[in-house]
Amino acid sequence: MADVIIAGLIEGGKASGGPPLGPALGPLGVNINAIVAEINDKTKQFAGIKIPVKVIVDPVTKSYKVEVGAPPTSALILKELGIQSGAKTKDETVGNITMEQVKKIAQAKESKMYGNTPAARAKQIIGTCKSMGVKVEGEDPRVIIAKINKGEIKI
Question: What is the model's pTM?
Fold first, then answer.
């Protein structure tokens, strides 16, 4: 019998035995409380953000594996700034993020990003800031990326 995969978006640290997990896991005869506890432990640093979570269950042995994805970069930026959404127009500015906050987000997403250096990952985060209407250190994100490229800002 093939493994059963249950996937969903769960708010960091707030999984419960209720929907969507409980009803899907119940018929499989696994320890739902243990799975919920593992999910909450693995997602607690993302409190307030919905995280993709996958539970893979072997229905014969009742063994399971919990895989936690990374939240979207935009969600992490919104959380850092304490705002609800990005800019509605290309001319709107919704916030200002520091390089320390950019580095923090890059570290949180490190395993899920394409950049192979801290500077490359930071530039990816800054690029997302640009599309969201968020300034970096009070400047247009393109200016900050240019400064990183010239070596004026060290990551």
Answer: 0.69
Nearest CA to 147 out of 128, 129, 112, 122 is that of 122
Residue type for position 109: K
Superfamily per CATH, domain 4-68: Ribosomal protein L11/L12, N-terminal domain (3.30.1550.10)
Q: Which superfamily, per CATH, for 73-150?
A: Ribosomal protein L11/L12, C-terminal domain (1.10.10.250)
pLDDT digits (tens, 9 = 90+) for 5-53: 888 888 889 999 888 888 889 899 899 999 999 999 999 888 888 888 9
